[in-house]
Amino acid sequence: xxxxxxxxxxxxVVIVAVLAVGSxxxxxxxxxxxxxxxxxxxxxxxxxxTKPGNVWPEDKHVVHRSxxxxxxxxxxxxxxxxxxxxxxxxxxxxxxAELPGLxxxxxxxxxxxxxxxxxxxxxxxxxxxxxxxxxxxxxxxECVTCHPVDPLPMPEDILPAYYGLPTINVLDPCNxxxxxxxxxxxxxxxxxxxxxxxxxxxxxxxxxxxxFESDDTSAWSSTVP
Length: 225
Known about the structure:
By secondary structure, this protein is mainly α. The chain has 5 helices and no strands. The protein has helices at residues 7-23, 38-41, 60-68, 105-108, 123-131. It is globular.
């Protein structure tokens, strides 16, 4: 059959469309709390999480703004929100005088390639969900469909961008003294996604500035110099 005069232009349109889709930069599959996190962690204004089954002392929003950070700072809402009352974005916010506008990734992600433009923040968070077998497809690989070339997450002891900055009361991803834990399970975050928490992670073996191991007191001294 002889092709019609419309066949070639139509074919070109299809080819261009396929190329455009194939070359598009990866997009965030979950852009905000309400578009993904609620399935397992329930409402941000609730005090329970279906998974991992922990309980918060108050609703998550109150704990985040009044315990994890100093809510008395005039622009403190900008740490997580673009505008007061909106659904927090995972990787963007208005920022504050003290904090860049990183949204949830300010505490739940580490930049794997500092100084470069990328959308790879949160590699450890995604790996945690994959290793914990969490995903809409039932095998924990849902994140991989949008992040097939995720970098190896930074080690557990690397501070997320917000940790330790003024107005932030979360200090150390290795969670000494429970400074990263705010729920009933007694654990902080699995920042690098390997399912080892806090001091159980090999990167957190030495938790003191002088390098002594948490379970090694042989080099300690009671003598005041």
